[in-house]
Specification:
This protein is α+β, with helices and mostly antiparallel strands. The protein has 2 domains: 162 residues, 3-Layer(aba) Sandwich (Aminopeptidase); 151 residues, Gcn5-related N-acetyltransferase (GNAT) (Aminopeptidase, 3-Layer(aba) Sandwich), CATH 3.40.630. The chain is 38% helix and 29% strand. The chain is built from 11 helices and 13 strands. It has a 7-stranded mixed β-sheet with strand order 1-2-3-4-5-13-6, with helices on both faces. Strands 7-12-11-10-9-8 form a 6-stranded mixed β-sheet, sandwiched between helices. Strand 2 and strand 3 form a beta hairpin.
């Protein structure tokens, strides 16, 4: 493999990047060119500053076979190389490489970094790697071979619901109490004096309106209002547009008498719904709008043949009440010997 350090994302074609992402070990929305290039341009919506791009590709016979999207920054009191997308707003991260090439690619990548005076002794600190990723075993093997220090720890749970039938089949698989509660809340929202309405974004003419309404609804929550700094708000808007243009945005509202009561920002990607963010109006809590909209999302996913609803990171109790089962993402650290 021939390795190259790139100064800018524009040096790699987006179509070749996304083709490699689709064939790689982590085919998620967070691996796509439009997601990671946008993240880099905004530094994660202002999460980072004073970073250095470490974007490395590998080719064989003129064909792109692997990408390590990374950056260097001060982190926890030391200089480290992290995966682009780290840490807070990207739920799954990894190398972009087919499974059969992981070992060779990682070995060559570490040799390539080791030949750089600025990076040879810098630790790798990689977050949000799926616990099933072959990258973890490859890192462990390289650490043993080089007599470097390797540590791995569970970073966050990523609950998800497996779907394989219609909505009634999904409900039948839940605990009886939770099944009754979901049905009761759906019925109450439907039979209210002003029934709720499920609205899925389908027209590009409504995109900008939906973006602003979604962000405004998020800001009704005090924690999310603090999260939505001006830089993060701009990033979220740009991400929504990029996902729409990429064909994998799934955004919906629950409305009551024309007023937005709850909102969901998901990715519809590779036969799954990926629950990225949500918002609820405090003016409609009597109809449990968050629960109702989540039930509508799962119902839509069942009706449209989606195999899974992935809540992604976070262990909020409502996820498990809807039948989610945990998987995890991990933090892996590799420290070269001195």
């Amino acid at each position: 493999m021939e390795f190259t350090l790139h100064k800018d994302f524009s040096e790699l074609p987006s179509d070749a990047w996304n083709h490699l992402a689709s064939a790689g070990i982590s085919d998620t929305p967070f691996a796509r060119y439009e997601y990671l290039s946008l993240w880099w341009n905004t530094q994660g919506g202002g999460e980072w500053a004073d970073t250095e791009l470490v974007l490395v590709s590998a080719s064989e016979g003129g064909h792109l076979v692997g990408i390590a999207p990374m950056f260097a920054a001060e982190h926890e009191g030391r200089r480290a190389v992290l995966l682009i997308g780290s840490i807070e707003i990207s739920d799954y991260l990894d190398l972009l490489v087919p499974a059969v090439d992981v070992d060779e690619f990682l070995k060559g990548l570490l040799d390539f970094l080791g030949a750089s005076p600025d990076l040879a002794s810098v630790a790798l600190d990689w977050y949000n790697i799926a616990e099933t990723s072959p990258t973890l075993q490859a890192l462990r093997m390289e650490a043993e071979r080089r007599r470097w220090t390797y540590t791995q720890e569970v970073f966050r749970p990523t609950p998800r619901i497996a779907l394989g039938g219609d909505f009634e089949a999904y409900l039948a698989g839940l605990d009886k109490k939770q099944r009754h509660e979901i049905r009761r809340k759906l019925r109450r929202a439907t039979e209210a004096p002003t029934p709720s309405k499920f609205e899925l974004l389908q027209s590009p003419a409504l995109l900008e309106t939906y973006i602003e309404e979604f962000l405004d609804l998020m800001a009704q929550d005090a924690n999310k209002a603090r999260f939505l700094t001006p830089a993060m708000r701009d990033h979220m808007g740009a991400l929504t547009r990029a996902a729409w243009e990429g064909g994998f945005l799934w955004m919906a509202f629950l409305s009551v008498n024309g007023v937005k009561a709850a909102a969901a920002f998901n990715f519809d990607y590779k036969g799954k719904l990926w629950g990225y963010n949500s918002a609820v109006s405090r003016d409609f809590m009597d109809i449990s709008p968050g629960w109702v909209l989540l039930a509508r999302q799962i119902e839509w996913a069942c009706e449209h043949g989606r195999s899974e609803f992935d809540f992604m990171r976070g262990d909020e109790a409502y996820k498990y009440r809807f039948g989610a089962v945990n998987r995890h993402v991990v933090r892996a650290r590799l420290l070269p010997s001195k």
